[in-house]
Amino acid sequence: MEQRRTKRFRIKLPVEIVQLGGKRVSRPGHTFDISSGGVCFSSNRDFEVGGRIEYLVTLSQAPDARVQIRCLGRVLRIVRLTDQAGFTCQVVASLDRYQFTRSAVPATAN
Description:
It contains no helices and 8 strands. The protein is mainly beta.
């Protein structure tokens, strides 16, 4: 029987890692599940367990606006894998602080 402190929601959302420790990065991926305490997401790069992490989860991308959660946490666990999209690991990170953001999506030129 699973005994987690918070309920996990299995949902696939775009995620972008924007900072690892003190280093700015841009690493795309997608979530496998998310809860009020953390997130499990795909990545094609290695992470340091225990390291600080900042990531953006995109909740909605309407034609005129994008809604995201900017999250701060720590890398808790890494599980090696290879999936059809070419991702090589699942990363589990805590969600220590978060902030909802909304931004305009720039119009594309035709």
